[in-house]
Amino acid sequence: MVVQRDSIVEKVSDLYEKISNLESLKPSKDVDMLFTQLVLLCTPPNPIDVTKLPKNNQEMRSKLIRLCGEAEGLMEKHYATILGSFDNPIDHFDLFPYFNNYIKLSLLEYNILIHHCSSQAPNRVAFIGSGPLPLTSICLALYHLTSTTFDNYDIDEEANSLAARLIASDSDLSKRMFFNTANIMNVTSELKDYDVVFLAALVGMNKEDKVQAIEHLAKNMAPGSLLMLRSAHGSRGFLYPIVDSCDLHGFEVLSVYHPTDEVINSVVIARKLQVNEVATIALTEDATVKNNVIEELKLKQNVDDETFKMNMVEEFAFEQNLA
Fold it and tell me: What confidence category does residue 277 fall into, taking pLDDT thresholds of 50, 70 and 90?
């Protein structure tokens, strides 16, 4: 096991050195080759826990995730510009080399979402960090959530302009998909309007920023609404930030799914806790009564996550601080 871990860390470190010495991360033969090698290396299931690597490896991993994020953003802008030059961009999405991955990932997320939705489908969805090529929200809107309104948020105005161009010629999507230029940390009361909030993998490129974004959502999302976010597992944690269940304070984790195919991101879905649930547990003095309440709520929600009680108590403390 140690030999396997050391081997992949050594190979990833070698690729990191080559990538970090590139003059540019814009799509090119050398950039495409190195990132393809990195993805092929990290995609196969591997039991490594990258969060427990030595400090020097952690620093390398953190820098590599940022490089991956920058390269992914440049690649999306490149293809969004190409696709936007067509009269009907949607007809040409297969020009993007990873389009099939988005088809699979959006179907996976839809199936997970519908399983946990109280109604058949959400009315309003927010996608945070949509970028210039928002294929997840487009695929969901096109194939699965065909009557849902999507508000896409990105901090980059150019990215939003490129994204809006992709759906402008579609009479249906152009009425249901909107693009907002904003730092999500400045979006507050609007978040209560959404049944579901998606948090893109590249929002928060390190642990601290990711947790800060999640805490902001916990403060402002409507109780009972759903949060869907992307994480990574095993060696895929060299490519994307990892979100642990314990990072989701104020939420009840409903499901965590780790793909083993070419879909790289893990999918996490969580429910924003109801204030009355939190208060019931936090204010109950009698330990037996408190445990009975917890078990009753778990049974009602069909969950047994160990973080359930902790998240509820922390959420109640948070609500008290807001009051």
Answer: low
* pTM greater than 0.70: yes
Same domain, 56 and 175: no
The residue out of 72, 93, 114 marking a domain boundary is 93
What residues are paired with 178 via a beta bridge?
A: 151
pLDDT at 301: 45
Tally of structural domains, the chain: 2
